[in-house]
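User: My collaborator sent over this chain with a note saying "see what the structure looks like." That's all I know about it. Can you take a look?
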Amino acid sequence: MPMLEVLRAADKPLTAAQKRAFAREATRIFREILGTPPGRLRLFFIETAPVEQEDPGEDPPAFTGNQSARSE
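Assistant: Without extra context I'll predict from the sequence alone. Here is the result:
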């Protein structure tokens, strides 16, 4: 059973109508491209507030993996 997780950072959450429209389109695409039967796609929306940067022109910090502090 395929699952699609939608991560979204925005000031305002999606409305129920927007989520339904997204779900209809995602279901259509999964059916046409992958052959997923109707009702089999699981869709999750996770919404969060955008991360504020001090300088709008500044690039976000790069992900460097799991770093643990060591004292020597």
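A starting point for your reply to your collaborator: The longest strand covers residues 3-9.
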